[in-house]
Amino acid sequence: MPKTAAQISTEIPALPVEQSIEQSNPTDPASSNPVPSNSGLTNPAPANSAPTRAVSLASLVTSQPHPAELPRELNCLAGAIYFEAKSESLSGQLAVGRVIVARSKSGRFPNSYCGVVFQPSQFSFVRGGGMPGIARSSQQWRNAVAIAQIAHAGSWRSPVEGALYFHAAYVSPTWRLARVGRVENHVFYR
Question: Model-level pTM greater than 0.85?
Fold first, then answer.
């Protein structure tokens, strides 16, 4: 029997940075805009903890632990981020990761990260039901793991939050979807 997103989320261990992280931009006081606590993601901040402030997505990425072994679902999410966006900025990687998280919670796609990633004809890097080899000692993989943790926790808002679809900017599908925006080499839709 397939597991629900809630069951999978409880299998992914809580990480120290999954506290209420606030985005802030010193030049724009209105940009302190965390993902809402009712975003459906698990592992909210403990009631007695003070919110952690991250000045930038890069500092939040740096603060993420890098576990020796990832739970299967986070491995699928990190793998998709790695293959789809490893050459993008951290913001571009987060946008891809948050699409996978949003899909798993939408009711329109499989209800797990692995289900979303391995759904037939969705991601071009998936071949024969698997992912190619990953250079797990690379900085790109460490970044993908950190971004997967952040995307799962909902601790930083994606510039295209709520998007369910994306494609490379160099292709022009005839989708009749509401365009959310472009982040570097990907275009995002609802």
Answer: no
Domains observed in the chain: 5-159 (1.10.10.2520)
**Coil, helix or strand for 165?**
strand
SS3 assignment, position 125: coil
At 2-51, the pLDDT tens digits run 443 333 333 443 333 332 333 333 333 333 333 333 233 333 333 333 34
**What are the strands, taking DSSP E only, across the chain?**
21-23, 52-54, 165-168, 179-183, 186-189
**Residue 148, Cα to own-chain centre: how many angstroms?**
5
E strand map for 25-176: 52-54, 165-168
> 165 and 188 in contact (C-beta within 8 Å)?
yes
CA distance 131 to 125: 7
Q: Which amino acid is at 40?
A: G
What is the average pLDDT across 125-137? Answer: 93
Residue with tokens 């369910």: 164
DSSP string, 24-37: -BTTBGGG--PPPT
In Å, what is the CA distance from 124 to each residue of 49, 131, 132, 168, 189?
Answer: 42, 10, 11, 11, 18
Question: Integer distance in angstroms from the first to the last C-alpha of the chain?
Answer: 29
Q: Tell which residue, 90, 89, 91, 111, has the closest CA to residue 100.
A: 111
